[in-house]
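Form 12-C: Joint structure prediction
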Amino acid sequence: TQLLEQSPQFLSIQEGENLTVYCNSSSVFSSLQWYRQEPGEGPVLLVTVVTGGEVKKLKRLTFQFGDARKDSSLHITAAQPGDTGLYLCAPRTSAGGTSYGKLTFGQGTILTVHP
Amino acid sequence: DAGVIQSPRHEVTEMGQEVTLRCKPISGHNSLFWYRQTMMRGLELLIYFNNNVPIDDSGMPEDRFSAKMPNASFSTLKIQPSEPRDSAVYFCASSYLGGQPQHFGDGTRLSIL
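Section 2 - Result
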């Protein structure tokens, strides 16, 4: 059974600050997705990373997949109140070489950005 | 485009009652997932279907839970009999293929008294 840990569990910052949240595991993943969930809504996909060492940027958000594909980080520059939400990482493991790879979600990081 | 549609949005019922949650996936998606979210356990996969066939139901907690997908545009998750510990937000998600990004509905908040 893989262990998946997201940290920190809670993060409360002021508008304009930078932050990084982490997703770590003991297992190697074929790919990893980051989702953001706002209150009363379902998670929404932000990005998928596939290659070890890969870095993807989405405006003020920078996602990195670890070289060994066991960990990932999400860095937000100049956070805004609209960034508030639950950030979930969801690694995918291959399943017998099929496309039926299951997503396993971390517990998430609850981010609050105060104006 | 319409996203994943779940109903009802909220359900409050007494323990022992049957609960049925409904999901309409995005048209053209052939994979459907049911998840349960609680503060303690986070987002857990209960079951997923591919082309209307259950592929993995290892996350279904016990026999009181059952899920069906009679056609490509409709799925149900049923709890019978319901218990207070079933209280959670239940999400349905769909994707074009099992390995593709999942699109989530807004969930059903279930409270069992």
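Section 3 - Comments
The two ends of chain A are 41 Å apart (CA to CA). The mean pLDDT of chain A is 90.
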